[in-house]
Design brief:
It is built from 12 helices and 15 strands. The strands form 4 sheets. Strands 1, 2, 3, 4, 5 and 6 form a 6-stranded mixed beta sheet that branches. It is elongated and about 85 Å long. Helices cover 28% and strands 25% of the residues.
Length: 383
């Protein structure tokens, strides 16, 4: 194959040039760090919400069950009625907004066993307290209910698509060398989805070394990916959070607690070969490596394949792996950049993932094997 000048330069680096790897800065005493944030009372006052219940008695439901539920529902302090089904009836939760008033109507079925059914929820009379909890949740969050533990971060398809669109704009600024506060201030975050630092994240930020600077250069990648990568380097993560008022904020939490956090890259389409999506990574090139710093190999591969490469510094350092100390040796051979990245990272308990940013642009993420093998967030299936 024809080797371009850029590829040749990169290969020359890989062929044994003794370049000094950058070392991690010495730790300095911890100081309090400020973070740009929206006040944590960001769960602003929700609209006044009225919840009512329409209980449709099935043809086989007994009057005894209806009476028992009627007595229990009187304690819920909500309007309710039990009636026979009419054409077009179906279990659902409806919402209507009238200015500051939000009216939520629950249409549920009372079955022959005395169980109340509504969509994926079911309540026996003995579980009336759970029904009461759900009613309170609807009063707080409206028909969508609380966002926690739900697919798409608790957003509906329209809301998720809107957030994804806002976070898909490419980042053109370089925030490397900045503190967390300065790096966040430099990112072009969407105004309609303000950043909210949770109390847990504030506590974690106060424990940071005040001299810690960002090493990740996410220029060219989307805002969402850049924000996730920036926060991750400081041990934090974020996700879209729907508030009781119905607004959507970008809530920042400690990374370890962010199992459903916005990912640093989305999985590629499994139905398309990776060689088709990122052909440059699968071009064959001659490689010889003799005691070359791993960081230089990663940089050269990224440049030669013309694909962005991010390093998950926080996850790697948490496993007590010092990238600056790692050297690579590969006997003369022909291989692809994609295979090379796998070969030079695996012996050091590292892995490479080929992923896409929020706009669909592919890039390589270097992280630990443990992180590489983790399942991606539930939201990925709808990305």
């Amino acid at each position: 194959m024809r080797i371009t000048r850029r590829t040749w330069l990169a290969t020359s680096v890989l062929s044994g040039m003794s370049l000094l790897g950058s070392r991690l800065p010495a730790q300095t005493p911890r100081k309090v760090i400020k973070t740009a944030r929206v006040p944590d009372d960001g769960l602003v006052k929700a609209p006044e919400t009225d919840v009512s219940l329409e209980l449709i008695a099935s043809a086989t439901a007994s009057a005894e069950h209806a009476q028992a539920w009627g007595q229990r529902l009187q304690k819920f302090d909500i309007p309710f009625q039990t009636r026979q089904a009419v054409s077009g009836d179906k279990p659902e939760v409806k919402e209507q907004k009238l200015g500051r008033l939000r009216k939520v109507t629950v249409v549920a079925v009372l079955d022959r066993n005395g169980k109340i059914l509504c969509n994926d929820r079911a309540f026996t009379l003995a579980e009336a307290d759970k029904l009461a909890d759900w009613i309170r949740e609807l009063k707080t969050y409206g028909a969508q209910g609380a966002p926690q533990g739900k697919p798409l971060f608790g957003l509906d398809d329209r809301q998720f698509a809107g957030v994804l669109r806002e976070l898909s704009t490419p980042v053109e600024v370089n925030a490397t060398g900045l503190t967390l506060e300065a790096a966040l201030a430099k990112l072009p975050l969407p105004e309609r989805h303000p950043l909210r630092i949770t109390p847990e994240a504030q506590r974690a930020a106060r424990e940071l070394d005040s001299n810690k600077k960002l090493r990740t250069d996410a220029r060219g990648l989307s805002i969402g990916t850049a924000l996730a990568a920036t926060l991750a380097e400081f041990g934090l993560s974020f996700k879209p959070l729907r508030t009781p008022e119905g607004k959507i904020e970008l809530a920042v939490s400690p990374r370890e607690a962010g199992q459903d956090a916005w990912p640093i890259g989305w999985p590629l389409d499994p139905n398309k070969p990776q060689g088709q999506l990122v052909p440059a990574l699968f071009k064959t090139v001659p490689v010889t490596l003799e005691d070359v710093p791993l960081t230089d190999v990663l940089a050269a591969a990224s440049q030669a394949a013309e694909i962005p490469l991010l390093i998950d510094h926080h996850a790697i350092e948490r496993e007590e792996i010092d990238l600056s100390e790692l050297k690579v040796n590969v006997s003369p051979r022909k291989t692809t950049w994609g295979l090379l990245l796998r070969q030079v990272t695996f012996p050091h308990k590292l892995g490479r993932r080929i992923v896409a940013d929020d706009a669909g642009k592919t890039f390589v993420l270097i992280t630990t094997l443990k992180e590489t093998l983790k399942e991606s967030p539930e939201a990925k299936s709808s990305k």
